[in-house]
Design brief:
The complex is a heterodimer of chains A (178) and B (206). With 178 residues, chain A is an all-alpha fold. Chain A has helices at 2-42, 45-61, 69-90, 110-129, 132-142, 148-155, 159-177. Helices cover 78% and strands 0% of the residues of chain A. A 3-stranded antiparallel β-sheet of chain B has the order 2-1-3. The chains are: A mainly alpha (178), B mainly alpha (206).
């Protein structure tokens, strides 16, 4: 009996270690996605990191039910989005949002950088004006170059729905930016 | 470039990608790992499976026990009297059981004693003095049973089972079961006084 319990304990430890190793892979794979999703809502890096950490902690607690990679990323995305929306509503620190970082801004002149920042600020205002469904779709499509199939997987929606939402979102954005 | 984007939307898509091309700080991943270390690990699914198997086994054992109990034949609580001692004088009459207590509801039918129910045209099967079973069979069933017994050995047919038709008395309903409703009282018709002229009171609309 003692031998059996010892073997069972060793097997359980092995399972735990295996799960931790597997989650570490998911963490490296999806942590930036969670951060960017949170950032697209909050536009505050520290708050976005907090929300992403919370989402990843919840994902870890339910990781045994979410071992499938696509389901894990979809669940993490939706959870991060909801947490970020809740944080946005509860937190009134939106006024201290950071300025939007611009890729390659080091090669631009100060005037061009200011113009780019102003243009990015307009873009974020337009994104904020979108309905939530369109906003999440267009943000996910803009993150990590997701295609329609990947966005559909992340949202748990048919590809046709994602396509129409993307079309509507872009139309609204173009109208708002003109 | 993002493959889901048309050529017309390239500029907008480029702006979106640039706006979303933000990276977390270098301490983000270590902080995530530290946070996860403090998350209480949920019970392993292997442990859950270890609990599920005994639970299913216990449920199955309980189901088998329940099935065996319901299938068990209980012995009679008291020995039945031999058929020779059964008083059959009341056979053939239908009597309603008298109410034990409380006012009798005329809309409720009183329960009928089981021993009083006799199917017209039935016959009693006397299984002998040592047996404890009495059956009431319809006439056509009795004929079938007789044909079956004829196929058995004479000893079995004569010693084990004796079939005797009984006389079916006419259906008797005692007077205390049926109550007369009595004669209905005559209907009284009163003349309706004639209506007078309809007057208009103040405030009525035309």
């Amino acid at each position: 009996m003692q031998e059996y319990t010892d073997r069972l304990a060793v097997a359980l430890v092995d399972v735990e270690e295996e799960l931790k190793r597997e989650f570490e892979l998911r963490l490296r794979d999806s942590s930036t996605l969670a951060f960017r999703v949170a950032y697209s809502v909050l536009r505050h890096a520290e708050n976005a990191e907090d929300v992403a950490q919370e989402a990843l902690a919840r994902a870890y607690s339910k990781f045994r039910r979410l071992r499938d990679r696509d389901r894990f990323r979809a669940w993490l995305t939706r959870m991060t989005w909801r947490l970020a929306i809740d944080r946005q509503r509860a937190d009134r620190r939106r006024a201290v949002r950071e300025s939007v970082p611009q890729a390659g801004s080091g090669a631009e002149s100060p005037v061009e950088a200011v113009i780019a920042q102003e243009r990015a600020a307009r873009l974020w205002r337009a994104i904020d004006a979108l309905p939530e469904k369109l906003r999440l779709t267009v943000v996910l499509a803009g993150i990590e170059q997701h295609d329609i199939r990947e966005v559909a997987l992340l949202l748990g929606l048919p590809e046709g729905t994602v396509k129409s939402r993307l079309f509507l979102a872009r139309q609204r954005l173009k109208e708002l930016l003109q | 470039m993002n493959p889901i984007i048309d050529s017309e939307d390239r500029e907008l898509a480029a702006e979106l990608e640039a706006a979303l091309r933000v990276e977390p700080g270098p301490e983000f991943l270590p902080r995530c790992r530290a946070r996860i270390e403090h998350v209480p690990a949920p019970p392993a699914w292997s442990l859950a499976r270890l609990w599920v198997v005994p639970a299913i086994a216990a449920a199955m054992a309980a189901a088998v026990l329940f099935w065996l109990q319901t299938d068990q034949v209980y012995p009679p609580s008291e020995p039945m009297a031999p058929l020779a001692h059964v008083d059959t004088s009341g056979v053939g009459s239908v009597e309603s059981a008298p109410p034990e207590h409380g006012p009798q509801n005329p809309h409720l039918r009183a329960p009928i004693a089981k021993k009083d129910v006799v199917v017209p045209g039935a016959a009693a099967v006397d299984a002998g003095a040592g047996a404890r079973t009495a059956l009431f069979l319809a006439a056509e069933d009795l004929e079938g049973l007789n044909r079956f017994l004829k196929g058995l050995s004479p000893e079995l047919a004569t010693e084990a089972i004796q079939v005797q038709p009984i006389r079916i008395a006419p259906l008797i309903v005692h007077e205390n079961v049926v109550r007369s409703l009595g004669a209905a009282p005559p209907l009284a018709v009163e003349p309706i006084p004639p209506f007078g002229p309809i007057g208009r009171t103040e405030g009525e609309m035309e």
